[in-house]
Amino acid sequence: CLANLEGMPQPSPLVFFFRRIFVLGVVALLIWGVIALFGWVGSLFNQKPSNVVTAGQECAPGTVSVNAVIGDGTTEQLSFDAGVNPYLWFTLTNNGTVACKFNGGPRVTFFTIKSGEEQIWSSRECDRGGLVDKWVTLQPNQVLVWPANDWLRVHSSSTGCGAGQDPVLPGAYALTAEVNGVISGNYEQFLLN
Q1: Can you say whether the dihedral through the CA atoms of 96, 97, 100, 105 is positive or negative?
Q2: pLDDT for 129-183, tens place per residue?
């Protein structure tokens, strides 16, 4: 039998080269297939939650927009005479297509007033003890106006944010709001006379 093999012509080096390339290609495809299979199986068990919200669920990130408002407590106003305290509030808008729940309570609401880049007043420095959550259901495209609170035209500091703090000077200021992690899309500029 060996004698018969010795008489057969040997394949050329080029044939060996192509055979090796073919075998390596098959091995590479098998490895790729195994990796792809594990990735597919892993994705079945590690799926991230969808941003699709059904009615009555908590609002998906990016669904609700916040607008900071300053005025007399009912109407927006951008200039205040000496001795007149501005009122701060915000509106919530559901930009989604279904009704959803959103926390707009005072525990998760923060107002900031700046003059240029300098922070003048922040509700984060107020006594926040006893503040609570307040969940509301927002209908699609609904704009909900939150109740207003007055600002005493003072600075805030580590000692508080109300009566007894240093008064601010007349000038130009700007208000922003943050509600439940959503920062207001506007920078409400106003004047104190």
Answers
A1: positive
A2: 999 999 999 999 999 999 999 999 999 999 999 999 999 999 999 999 999 999 9
User: What tokens does 100 get?
Assistant: 């959803």
Q: How far is CA 134 from CA 74, 126, 166, in A?
A: 21, 19, 32
Question: CB of 147 within 8 A of CB of 111?
Answer: no
Report pTM.
0.71
Longest CA–CA span in the chain (Å) reads 116
Measured between alpha carbons, how far is 63 from 51 in angstroms, rounded to an integer? 9
Q: Reduce the DSSP state of residue 25 to 3 states and report it.
A: helix
Quick: pLDDT tens for 20-40.
888 787 788 888 888 878 776
Q: What is the DSSP string of 38-86?
A: HHHHHHHHSPPPPS---TTSBPPTTSEEEEEEEESSSSB-SEE-TTPPP
Contact indicator for 140, 94 with CB cutoff of 8 Å: yes
Structure tokens at 147: 């109740």
